[in-house]
Write a structure and sequence with these properties.
Structural class: alpha+beta
Largest sheet: 6 strands, antiparallel
Strand content: 15-25%
Number of helices: 4
Oligomer: single chain
Helix content: 10-25%
Shape: globular
């Protein structure tokens, strides 16, 4: 059975637009999956909670997929995409070419070694909630029982997040609206 999955992506080194573009392109090619929506790109200052992601601002966004890939297999695939795009596995909390996180996997709640769904800090991060809100403001967090729109209005994160303007052209074409499938 296919599940609705939201994946956050971000980059803060090198050609950030290209890294985000390549990551979204690879996500659109996943087997047994269909790309349903892609948020606009947002620029966000780095968050330094017990990590040092460097000084470079991030480009962030969220993709919505329908997939029947299991959560663990999806995580493995996302880590392979990160490595293929130059992510430093030895310094995962440092500056990064690409970062891919499973935000939601349907209404599933999982807590396994190395995999927590929903993402444990997404409700604290404006740079995740803004693009997520663009795709599906009514999506309800399965444990907090609040919509993404509500989480965004109540987030305490004071870091700067701004819509990237103008939006760059990308190789995967125009972003589909959250209510219309890709290619329609």
């Amino acid at each position: 059975m296919k599940e609705t999955v939201f994946i956050g992506f971000g980059s803060n080194v090198g050609d950030r637009v290209d890294f985000c573009d390549r990551a979204v392109t690879l996500l659109s090619l996943l087997p047994h999956s269909r790309l349903k929506g892609i948020s606009l790109l947002y620029e966000a200052e780095p968050v330094r909670n017990r990590t040092d992601p460097g000084d470079g601002w991030f480009l962030n966004g969220v993709v919505q997929l329908e997939t029947d890939i299991t959560p663990r297999s999806l995580l493995t695939t996302l880590q392979e995409i990160e490595r293929s795009l130059g992510r430093d596995d030895d310094n995962r909390s440092g500056p990064r070419t690409i970062d891919l996180d499973i935000l939601f996997y349907g209404e599933h709640v999982l807590k396994e070694p190395g995999l927590t769904i929903p993402h444990p800090r997404l409700h604290q991060r404006r740079f995740v909630l803004m693009p997520m809100n663009e795709l599906d403001p009514l999506w309800v967090h399965p444990t907090l029982k609040q919509s993404v729109a509500r989480l965004l209005t109540e987030v305490n994160d004071q870091s700067q997040v701004r819509l990237l303007f103008p939006q760059p052209s990308t190789r995967y074409g125009s972003r589909p609206a959250c209510s219309s499938p890709l290619g329609s």
